[in-house]
Amino acid sequence: MGTGGAPSLEILRNALIASGTEMTTVAMRRVSADTHGSIFDLLKELNIDVLPNTAGCYTAGEAILTAQLAREALETSWIKLEVISNEETLLPDGLETVRAAEKLALDGFTVLAYTNDDPALGKRLQDVGCAAVMPLGAPIGSGLGIRNPHNIELMRSLLTVPMLLDAGIGTASDAALAMELGCDGVLLASAVTRAADPVGMAHAMRLAVESGLLAHNAGRIPKRWRAHASSPQSGLIATDDRESPEF
Amino acid sequence: MISIILNGNEEQFPDGATLAEVVQHITSATQGIAVAVDAHVVRRNDWAITSLRSGAQVDVLTAVQGG
To answer: What is the pTM of this model?
Structure first.
């Protein structure tokens, strides 16, 4: 789970517990009177692994420096790499993301790269050493769900590294679909933190991810254009014609 | 006195001020923070032995909710 958008630290705390998340992402910002490291203390208390991110970076250079600072501050070499193209859409900048990913991977970082739902770009990120690729379902905070399920499924079939659906999840069925499409996990924040009942939605997300994974592993039936009866075709009551019997 | 741009604000420090003293000026925390001088990370162990030139840009970061 992400941590952005929570109305209070107490609600975030209860939502994190209800979601069952094992890893939580945090942003890096300049210290000020109201940023007293409390989120870091909360994650320590809940025994949740911290995944720093480079949210808000527009260039590879900014993202690399932010990752280096996060490694120093939080003592982890894991980084959620996020390089966005503009403030309005918050869509990832593919070229800058690949540039940053390559340098960070060479520098020993475990890079989880946020990216567009582009299978070719995902392959590039895998090839430069990303430990995981995280395609969006829809723009950050939009809650529009998975706009191109086919691309997510195609990407999954082309990549060998873990794939997490990041951004766009609006409700539980979106998270279940991500897992059914073969994702190894989901990363979501707004869908929970901005829900009317964040703790209730966090619980729903936990069940959705579990259900989606079980359904994926169980193997869904193929889709058909025509009906396929599930009742036996033999042993029906015999009638002389196909008209309805009189009562 | 030397002038330091500390987290975007200009501040005055005595000549020979170390990075450790400048960091202490903005936060009492020693864990969960990281420092960059002119966009280069300075490791925690080096703060006390790093002197600053006037005009240096010092950024002190920590983890916050987001992303």
So the answer is: 0.89
